[in-house]
Amino acid sequence: MSRSVLSKLSPRRRLAVLGSVGMLAAVGALALAGTASASSTAAPSSSSCSDATLHGTYSYGYEGWTVSKSGNSPTSTAGFDHFDGAGSSTGVTTFVDNGVVENNNTADTSTYTLNANCSGTIVFNIGGSLAHFNIYVSPSGKSFSVIETDPGTVQSGIETRVN
Questions:
Q1: N or C, which end of the chain has less CB nearby within 10 Å?
Q2: Could you tell me the domains of the chain?
Q3: What is the DSSP string of 117-130?
């Protein structure tokens, strides 16, 4: 979209368009990374992953959209998770949907499974609501990317170990 077209849009619409383009680029990059990982089922050459790869405390920020027939709204999530290296975590999260805080420093738990090729799944339980994600972990376990797989949501982010 050219700058001349963007300049004709209201500031709010311009932010929505630019945010959408940025989110599509991020989701596309994650999809390409996931496709590259999926094309080879072999473990990374230097090491492989297991549930024990995730251990310690990770901080994160996710961004995305809630998508429905009645409209789309931006979402943002931030917090931390403490992984036990045995397939579960506990943490605290804040979730904002369309500018409204829905969970403010709310306790969460998760269960996860990692494959030898460092891909896997994680399910967060936040105040009784479940959120399902695919995860892609660095072999060192220092960070991982997530993308939500629940219908009606487009959310992705990175978690980084802080201790």
A1: C
A2: 1-163 (2.40.128.120)
A3: TSEEEEEEEETTEE
